[in-house]
Amino acid sequence: MVLQETPTLDRVFYALANPSRRAMLRQLAAGRHNISELAQPLAMSFAGVSKHLKVLEEAGLVRRQVQGRSHVFEIDPATLETAEEWFNYYTELWEAQLDNLDAVLKSGANQSKAGSP
Fold first, then answer.
1. Residue 41 carries which DSSP code?
2. Which residues of 64-77 are buried (b: 16+ CB within 10 A; e: fewer)?
3. What are the residue boundaries of the structural domains of the chain, listed by start?
4. CATH code for residues 9-76
5. How many helices (H) and strands (E) does the chain have?
6. Is the pLDDT of residue 117 over 90?
7. How far apart are CA 44 and CA 63, in angstroms?
8. CA quadruple 82, 86, 87, 89: dihedral positive or negative?
9. φ and ψ at 33, to 5 degrees?
């Protein structure tokens, strides 16, 4: 059995850092597309699109299926879920910090009201 490398968050975030790759993912969110369909709105050569798709594929964000001479791509939701889990952890952390700050500010406001003449 061949062990597959789990895509790292570094690769995912590197792949997502490029606006052209994000645009391709937006297109793929609507369904499967081939390279020419992905290239059309980007005004980019097939070679350029192919390079971007390779980065997305290596990050585990898309899957490629070869159908004759055509390469069809679709989103791999599992890898996006991994990135979402990473964001959710920090979202929860910051929401807790902001809730604590809110409580402190409200407490201070209530104390100043109670102490005012």
1. G
2. eeeeeeebebebbe
3. 9-76
4. 1.10.10.10
5. 5, 3
6. no
7. 21
8. positive
9. -145, 150
pLDDT tens track for 59-69: 999 999 998 99
**Quick one: tokens of 81?**
């879920």
In whole angstroms, how far apart are CA 95 and each of 26, 27, 104, 109?
28, 31, 14, 21
The partner residues of 65 in beta bridges, in order of sequence, read 72
| Residue 15, token pair as written in the block | 């792949």
Which region holds residue 43: left if phi is over 0, alpha if psi is between -120 and 50, else beta?
Answer: left
Average confidence (pLDDT) over 44-49: 91
CA-to-CA separations, 18 to 70, 89, 90, in angstroms, rounded = 25, 24, 22
Token pair belonging to 116: 């005012």
